[in-house]
Amino acid sequence: MSASGRRALVTAGIGIPAAEFAYTTTGGGQTATIQRIDLTGSIRIAWGDGDITTVPSGSNTTIQHTYSGVQEYNVGIYGDWDAVTYFSWVSDAKLSFDVSAATWPSSLSVLWLNNTSVSGDVSAATWPSSLSVLRLFSTSVTFDAATFANGASVILVYFYDCGWTQAMSDNCLLAFYNHADTRTATGGALQLDGSNAAPSGTYQPAASCPVDGSTPGKEIAHELINDGCGAGINTWTTVTTS
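Above: the chain's sequence. Below: its structure in token form.
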């Protein structure tokens, strides 16, 4: 959110939001649709145009708001953000924000933000330990370091079609291998193919153990499924790369 947008919200007596998004309309009468929110508390959504929607406790709730103007709107979420367990706002290029700067609900289990203009470095974000499903495919997110913070429960992770370089694909694979000490889930799918560059190396057991930063990406992918080095990691069922 811009400084002017935050000042406007504070001036209106709303306060500082727990979560912030940008929504940029390209024509009048366009509708923002949050496809699904599950939560055990209640939140308020300030759409940036003066309208506020209250979302009560419940599951499988769809929220819509129609804008009249053409501009970037600062969308703020207030109330019990930590009570949100499922959040899906997808297939809308008008939605944007930086995932690395976001504060995620502590109870969040499922996050869908695919096919949007969301950006930022996944490796710089701190994910809730309850997170099990992460869908960021067809966005502009990056993977700039071999780190995936927290997210112990992840079992379905989709990063395909993000236009990554080979280094980013390698970083992602090594991050999830290093994450094995934190991850409590077993099995699952990790997908980073599509427009992402292929990881380095050849898909085969690691030529040298233990796996480290010098291990080619495709060998790490093999280890994530098979644990040929015998590190005792919680393996994945499938790891899909270009």
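The chain has two domains: 1-79, 98-242.
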